[in-house]
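User: quick one, sequence for these tokens?
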């Protein structure tokens, strides 16, 4: 138990350091193409990326109770200004940020590697 506690504390102390070392200089949040309302209504879920193509990603996501979706594998549109917070490739575990578009369909606005 003591080893587990020390491991968790050590991991918790390194997370802020890793975040601080991320290169934010190339991120222009003003160009994300999302309205304030869309940002407030964003839905997050964990997923595995199966493939990334031109403007789409095939993902296997956990259930998303906020929008009534069960766990499933599906193709999802990537928003034109979708952000990948780090390198994302097929097989990666990620947290998805989903935004509902004017057409009523959800699209991927961001992928954050786990």
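Assistant:
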């Amino acid at each position: 138990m003591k080893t587990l506690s020390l491991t968790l504390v050590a991991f918790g102390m390194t997370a802020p350091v890793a975040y601080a070392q991320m290169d934010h200089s190339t991120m222009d949040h003003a160009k994300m193409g999302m309205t304030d309302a869309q940002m407030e209504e964003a839905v997050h879920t964990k997923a595995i990326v199966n493939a990334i193509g031109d403007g789409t990603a095939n993902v296997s996501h956990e259930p998303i109770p906020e929008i009534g979706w069960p766990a499933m594998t599906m193709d999802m549109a990537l928003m034109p200004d979708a952000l990948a917070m780090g390198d994302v490739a097929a097989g990666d575990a990620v947290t998805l940020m989903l935004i509902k578009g004017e057409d009523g369909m959800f699209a991927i606005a961001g992928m954050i590697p786990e």
